[in-house]
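Write out this protein's structure.
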Amino acid sequence: MAQSSTEPKFSLRLIIDEEKNKVVLAEAGKDFVQILFSFLILPIGTIVRLLAKHRKSDPVTIGCLRNLYTSVVDMELDDFETDACKQMLLYPKNIREAQYRNFKLNIDTNESLKCFGCRFFSICRMCSNFNTSLCKCGKLMNEEISFLEYEENDVEGVFMRDKSSFIITDDLRLTDDSTSSLLQTLKDLGCADVSKLREQVLDIGLKEVMTLMQCVFTSNTPLTDAFLKNQSSNTVRKIYRKLSDDKGDEAEPDKVITIDAIVRKQDMKILYVECGEDFVDLLFTFLAIPLESIWEISGNSITIGRIGNLFRSFKDLSDNEVLSASKCMIPYYYRCQKQLLKIRTPTPRVYLGHCYSKTLSYSQSFYLTTKRTTKRMTFVDPKSDCCGRSKDGKGFVKRGTKLIQKN
């Protein structure tokens, strides 16, 4: 990744154990912590794409997720229901995207979410987040419509309120910064002899942030590996524990997916499965789910690097209203016919507004807003090739498709 001369920088104060050549802790401002926490709200597909771009020669392997992402890359457009299906999987959107777009450093330069309508959208009252969708009138929905709240959004305190400085340990445990917290943290870490410690102040830019993101997944000491040793593994360090029992209701019969598994007898290892499009849709949905939601769905049963510590700190320090409002939620157009995961895909409530501008362009005299003004707009399912609005949502791959999925 090329760095711009005007690239934003963060100041990070490291406390280092000279004998062990190890970061004991770091003191960071709110802007840096916002970026650190933003790792958790990024969709899995975005994380895979960013890490592959950062380390092209030897990309990080996060379980089998890179294989899953690469499978989507290699598939032909004809394998999907619509052109938009492949785009939404390779460049997944986040419901909180508008909030972190205006952070001091934007680690994802992917194009922001847009809205489109046909040339008669104020009459049809239908819009889409993709410019390849068809309106109910049969016209292509390729005219961009401005969205008022995207421009008015204020990201101040997206995750944390009334906090400006934080202490971060090498294993990514975060607390509020204060003299008492600093002394207690040093004591807990066994650093009684402060004469062995030294201070180092670093200016952190995009390159360093991406290296840290990689180390978060692959290292037990991400601060040391990212900022002192400047190295990291390309393999995720992981510990699998038995998944917590699901206390929810059993799945409805029509929501069950059946697959044929080919199993090796001697060790009962699944070699591959033969499956229909519903199972593939389920796998592809993983790419759109934010990391924090994956953690919630798993019941905190999977340890990947130091993501667990970061997530627990995120919950402790974040605004509770922000957390509850977006828990296990992804954009409406990722809804499929058999949605087995505990995720929500609510359709946004968007209305049509008039800006009273004197312009010759008919479409530009209107905007979209979440505030009730005139008429409610209906979002088109971009997975449908004929402005479908299926209650259960269509899948990503074409119906009637049979596929083989390797272990």
